[in-house]
Amino acid sequence: MNTLIKATGIDFRIGGNRAFYVPAEDYVQVPPPQAYFEPINWHRTALHELAHASGHPSRLNRDLSGGYGTKKYPFEELIAEISSAFGCASLGIVPTVRHADYIGSWLEVLREDNLSALGIDLTIFVMVRTRHHTREWADRFRKYVERQPEVIDFHRIGGDWDYMSKIAAKGTSG
């Protein structure tokens, strides 16, 4: 993880009691690892804040002007949390359910804003890995996924991941 942080070239500071990214000064700060109940929570938080920093004008140049409560804020939170989830998966850090819960909470905010009226289509691809490969489990999982109105496509795949689903936020064309 330290190698990844250094490779980003982002000013990464450890200290304080909360995590944040300061766009104007282009630095990330997170509490020390021992402030977290589990190491994964520090990793997930660090990757989330680094993802925010990826939007700096010298990098991907995303519009980071939307503060909490604005219509832009949920989009940036989705970018950061999805990036964190993929980063954890790529590094072999087994993510907890927080990624899915947090992403879902921001999708709910976007649903309330009626994305179609804003002219925005939001499609998310979700990869799932499981240790359960019995036919019974797969059937239960498939039935659950099929009941989710946001899921517009779902496949069993091979390789490092077991399933892939295409999800559209309600109110979008998908």
Specify Rg, calculated over alpha carbons: 18 Å
Helix content: 40-55%
Unreliable sequence segments: none
Q: Tell me about the biggest sheet?
A: 3 strands, mixed
Number of helices: 6
- CATH top-level class of the largest domain: Alpha Beta
Q: How much of the sequence is in beta strands?
A: 15-25%
Secondary-structure element series: HEEEHHHHEHEE
> Could you say which structural class the secondary elements and strand pairing correspond to?
alpha+beta
Number of domains: 2
Identify the CATH architecture of the largest domain. Answer: 2-Layer Sandwich
Number of E strands? 6
Can you tell me the CATH topology of the largest domain? Zincin-like
Q: First CA to last CA: what distance?
A: 35 Å
In a nutshell, what does this entry contain?
Keywords: Nucleotidyltransferase, Transferase. This protein is an alpha+beta fold and 174 residues long. It has helices spanning 2-8, 39-53, 73-91, 98-112, 115-118, 135-146; strands spanning 11-14, 20-22, 27-30, 123-128, 151-156, 163-168.
Element layout with pairings:
Blueprint: H1 2-8, E1 11-14, E2 20-22, E3 27-30, H2 39-53, H3 73-91, H4 98-112, H5 115-118, E4 123-128, H6 135-146, E5 151-156, E6 163-168
Parallel strand pairs: 1-3
Antiparallel strand pairs: 2-3, 4-6, 5-6
